[in-house]
Each structure stands twice: as C-alpha cells, then as structure tokens.
C-alpha cells in the first residue's frame, strides 16, 4: 500500500527501511561541507520519509518558490 499521496508522508526510522543511519549522516556531512548550494535533503524509501535535513538557515517552515529551489536526490545506496 502506498503512503503517497496523502495529507502527510509517513515517517519511519531508517533502520526500519534497512538503511544504516551512518550512511545518511555521512551524506548530510558531505552536503554540508561540499555542496553548500543545497538547502535541504529529503530521503524517501518505500514511500516513507526516513530522514530530512536543512542547511543554510532553512527549516521546514521557510517557504521558497518550489519550482526554483526543489531538488530531488535519489540514492542508489537506498534502493
């Protein structure tokens, strides 16, 4: 059963999706240090949010023009 589309995405710990959270932490660290133009990352597996992180002062509540700033990151490691 798909969790999308609904009013809210379901969230689960990364471990429930078979993902070692250390991989996600390393991803966030690399983005923070080397890809400073990225403002947010959302990791989704099996229609569940397993991690999200904001950079450069952005938060969930900071709204921007999504068309201009939305970037989707698919990690082959998570497949």
Helix content percent band: 10-25%
What average pLDDT do the residues reach? 78
Radius of gyration over C-alpha positions, nearest whole angstrom: 13 Å
Order of adjacent strands in the largest pleated sheet: 1-3-2
Task: Tell me the total number of β-strands.
Answer: 3
Distance between the termini: 18 Å
- How many helices? The count is 2
**Share in β-strands:** 15-25%
Secondary-structure-based class equals alpha+beta
Low-confidence stretches: 65-69, 73-79
Order of helices and strands: EHEEH
* Main sheet makeup: 3 strands, mixed
> Which overall shape is indicated by the principal axes computed on the Cα atoms?
flat
Architecture overview:
The protein has a three-stranded mixed sheet, with no helix packed on it. The protein has helices spanning 21-34, 66-69, and strands spanning 10-11, 40-45, 48-54. The protein is flat and about 30 Å long. The chain has two helices and three strands. Mean pLDDT is 78; it is low at 65-69 and 73-79. It has 79 residues and is of the alpha+beta class.
């Amino acid at each position: 059963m798909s969790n999308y589309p609904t009013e809210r995405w379901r969230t689960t710990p990364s471990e429930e999706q078979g993902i070692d959270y250390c991989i996600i932490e390393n991803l966030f660290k690399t983005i923070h240090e080397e890809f400073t133009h990225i403002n947010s990352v959302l990791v989704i597996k099996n229609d569940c949010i397993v991690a999200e992180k904001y950079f450069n002062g952005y938060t969930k509540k900071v709204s921007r023009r999504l068309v201009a700033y939305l970037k989707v990151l698919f990690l082959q490691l998570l497949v």
